Amino acid sequence: MAEFASIHYNAPEFSDRHISVVFFDENAHCLSQVSDVDPKIASEHAKSLGLSTKNHVVIVTSSSPSIIYLYAMMPKSGSLHDYHKLGASIYRVMKQCDFDAVQFFWPSSASDAEFASSFGAIIKGFYGSNYSFSQYKKSVETLRTYRINHITDNESKLTALFADVQAVVSGEMLTKDLMHEPPNILTPKAFAQRITSMESLGLQIEVMDEKKLLEQRMHALLSVGQGSTNPSQLVTVKWCGRSDDCSDPIALVGKGVCFDSGGINIKLQGLVDMKYDMGGAASVIGAMHAIAKLKLPVNVIAVVALTENMPGGRSYRPSDIIQSRAGKSIEVLNTDAEGRLILADAIDYVREFQPKAIIDLATLTGAIIVGLGHEYAGLFSNDEKLSGCIQASSKATGDKLWPMPLDPAYDVFMDSPIADVSNLSSQLGKAGSITAAQFLQRFVGDLPWAHIDIAGTAWIPQHNGVHPKGPTGYGVSLLVDVVSNYQ
Ligand code: BES
Ligand code: MN
Ligand code: ZN
User: Fold this and answer.
1) What's the confidence (pLDDT) of residue 1?
2) Domain boundaries, the chain
3) Where does the pLDDT of residue 111 fall: very low under 50, low under 70, confident under 90, or very high at 90 and above?
4) 283: nearest Cα among 298, 308, 302, 261
5) Is the entire prediction scored with pTM above 0.85?
6) CB atoms < 10 A from the CB of 77, how many?
7) What was the pLDDT predicted at 2?
8) CB within 8 A of 388, min separation 6: which ones?
9) How far apart are the first and last CA of the chain?
10) CA distance 415 to 412
11) pLDDT: which is higher, 177 or 57
12) Over residues 350-372, mean pLDDT
């Protein structure tokens, strides 16, 4: 994770060697006011250089070799992804041209909120690109420390907006760092220690080891982890930004399987991907990091269940019946359906804080990738207000998700003949993401709850214009927006 060397606003004589970013609309009309650039000439120039709705950035040399202009076209009625992509493209040009200073000439007509938020999205794509994970390479990629100058006639507004973006981006980078870490390094204990180091941000953190988990009767979590030599942990993180007693919090819950081999039902494919099965926990922790940086006036309690699902002589078995913390017995028919088990205990635990809503994030099912690919996460909820709020936040942040059904007709597939619930649907291979959600719902009670299956969106198999192959930081923006807006 990298910091920019410095970020300025309207700094005079900022740098004698820099890139100047000038914005155009989709008709190549120049939107920026640059003293030494005539907008009409710039428009003609931009067109002649091939700036178009297909080609969003062009590099323009000037009479001075120390100044390059970058003509950037605002996406036409762009989706947030397009704005993020534009910011990422600007970053790439800066990197490729080997400049370490950049000046943005923001359009002055930024009166309406929509236009201003598009600037935020461009800067998010730009700031978020200043990232690499290379600490295990002999030649560690040292990221240049860039200097940035924002030229704007609305300094106070953009300063506040971009500072918020920066806080969210730093949360996303933490999420990405955690997901990149290999499972021999980021064991449940190491993950818990990384979380504890966030206390300095004003977060209250409590780590439960296996002894405590036993006292708490969290046998579902303990069972999943019992085949590993790395003990399970459950970490509670509180941000009491509205009141010291942290009353009426929003609860966030994250699946943190640091490696999911499948256990005794060992996976036959995709094993190397399963270090990112802690993506839900990583997103929740990244969001808490951002929430603390932003000092949001809200109460939030996050719980992450950290464990490793391994085969071995002590592993839990298919056909075991385990007692969950909630008092419901669970028949384990497949040890690879472990996420729902650890979430059952974590959800039951967080209920004790009497939250006004519970939102869990989990890389829960391969089936959600079959259904939605790597574009949209699956949203399941028992509450229309909560679901509506989450969908609005999804639109506002670009963390895409799509509503999926819950229905008693699916729920019966999770019945077990000899326990209170089975961890495997009796309709194998059908509606796997929904039946997993039905399992979770049995542990929620009547609290407003949403489950977001991020198996496809947390990690992408190829560059999508904004993020390279790997972790996306999905969910951090979304959760920050939801906790800011949910009443
Ligand atoms: N961690 C996996 C889900 C997953 C798959 C995440 C691919 C990311 C990419 C989860 O624990 C799992 O194994 N789910 C099983 C459930 C099945 C046994 C009912 C699955 O999806 O196959
Ligand atoms: Mn699994
Ligand atoms: Zn898993």
Assistant:
1) 47
2) 6-153, 175-485
3) low
4) 302
5) yes
6) 7
7) 61
8) none
9) 33
10) 5
11) 177
12) 98
pLDDT given at position 138: 85
How many helices and strands (H and E) does the chain possess? 14, 19
CA distance 29 to 336: 56
What's the token pair of residue 45? 């120039």
C-alpha 196/C-alpha 80 separation (Å) is: 33
Residue 364 alpha carbon to ligand 3 centre in Å: 6
- CATH number of the 6-153 domain: 3.40.220.10
Kindly report the protein residue whose alpha carbon is nearest to atom 8 of ligand 1: 455
At 253-306, the pLDDT tens digits run: 999 999 999 999 999 999 999 999 999 999 999 999 999 999 999 999 999 999
Contact 435, 364 (CB under 8 A): no
Respond yes or no: is residue 255 known to be catalytic.
Answer: no
Q: What is the 3-state secondary structure (H, E, C) of 291-315?
A: HHHHCCCCEEEEEEEEEEECCCCCC
**How far does residue 338's CA lie from ligand 3's centre (Å)?**
6
Query: Domain 175-485 classified CATH 3.40.630.30?
Result: no
Residue type, 486: Y
Q: Annotated catalytic, 340?
A: yes
